[in-house]
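Field notebook, page 76. I keep forgetting to write these up properly, so this time I am using the form the group agreed on. The chain and the ligand, zinc ion, are recorded exactly as supplied. Prediction of the bound pose follows.
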Amino acid sequence: MNCGRNLIDLSLFVNHFMMNTGEIQCPTCFEWFEIALPELGRGEIVELDYDCEICCRPMLVIVDESGARAQSLSDL
Ligand SMILES: [Zn+2]
């Protein structure tokens, strides 16, 4: 399945951040996939809106020094 919005987000990361990748698990379909991560400052936490690459459902991805994890938007 092709999520057009993710392609746009990835191109922004390439322009503005070092390319790091992390594995996250979709909270909706529970599939694992790799996303591009922003470079973090010391102790920094970044929240990203992301659409699952498998089921295209929106999620919130929280990135900190220990890695990335996904949270369903319906849990907020
Ligand atoms: Zn999914």
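OBSERVATIONS:
- The first helix runs from residue 4 to 16.
- The pocket of zinc ion is lined by residues 26, 28-29, 31, 52, 54-55, 57 (CB under 6 Å).
FOLLOW-UP: compare against the apo run.
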